[in-house]
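Ticket #4471: structure export looks truncated?
Reporter: QA, pipeline team
Priority: medium

Steps to reproduce: submit the single chain below to the structure queue and open the exported record.
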Amino acid sequence: MHKNRDRDLSIAVVVGEPSGDWIAAGAVAKLRGMNRHIRCFGIGGDHMAAAGVSLVQHISSLTALGPVNSLKRAPLWMNAWADFRLRCKKERPKAALLVDCPDITLPLARALKADGVRVLQYMGPKVWAWRKNRLRLLRERTDMVALGFAFEKPLYDEWRVPATFVGHPLLDVPLSHNREAVRNSLHVPGNAKVMALLPGSRASELKYHSAPMLEAAVRLLRNGVVTVFAPHLDAASEQLLMQARSMGCVVWQRPVHDLLAACDGALAASGTVTLELARAMVPMVIVYKMDKIGYWLGQQLLDIPFVGLPNWVAGEATVPELLQEQVTGENLFHAAMQLFTPGEQQRQQQALQAVASKLGTPGAAHRVAQMIRDWVA
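Actual output as written to the record:
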């Protein structure tokens, strides 16, 4: 009897990218705090494992930037899916929490729904940017979509997809506001200008962004700017970190949100980190580069006004973006120096404050956990 009860309290959790790992982990931690009998298994990373998820496969070897690199990793994902399905047959989960990355989660959602598993998609796919037809798949394959952006809700309503705005999970992450303490940890004088270099979380992002950022860093250093190279935790090789140090950068190997209080500006790969910068009101330049074939395909498929999330939330181009061929050391240097001008700093800080106010209120992880708890109660 006890064995069957435990099976009823088994939850499947899957993320498709490293950025989803901490998002899922937050919801899992809240969920397990509500009911200690709930057991979780799935595909994810270190944050999920620390929250108590039994990993079928670690996400670090499965992620890539762009369609070409993603195709190269398709066999790895096929193996991960097979292992996950086998685990599902053993665990018989009552509910599934799938985070972002629709190319991964939507096929799994179909299989889970066919098995009678209730599916909650946390952080919906960017259907407002491309492939709106995925809204039909979400309607068919999920029981609820927990949205991180308020501007998404009308589109989901239009397509009759059950969805609710829970707020962005970033709001649950405390920001450090002690500028002096963070600067002291960096051994940076109080009056020095500090520029964060944030090349991304995936190996392919580091491949395309690190070199031009480090080239810009050399020029920034010549102009008296302290540069802090801060790739996603565990994403960069020791060789890359040594290269950054040899070029005069301070290397940051802690969570990025702990760094931002010290920064006057940032060069940031497009992604969730740009919303962290918005919360901290750090002026930024958004950077995005990928393989040429993947970018060409994107141009054929997409008709979008912006790449960066702060611009989508704002509904206008509030943050400058440098894309593909524009991502050179020289261009990054000049764009970074522009951030230090009083007019641009004030303009961006005001715009970013407005962006942060549109992300909702803290408690997204708790709201998502409550939905799942109610399903399995």
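Status: closed, not a bug. The export was complete when the record was re-opened. Leaving a note from the reviewer for reference: Confidence is low (pLDDT under 50) at residues 1-7, 65-69.
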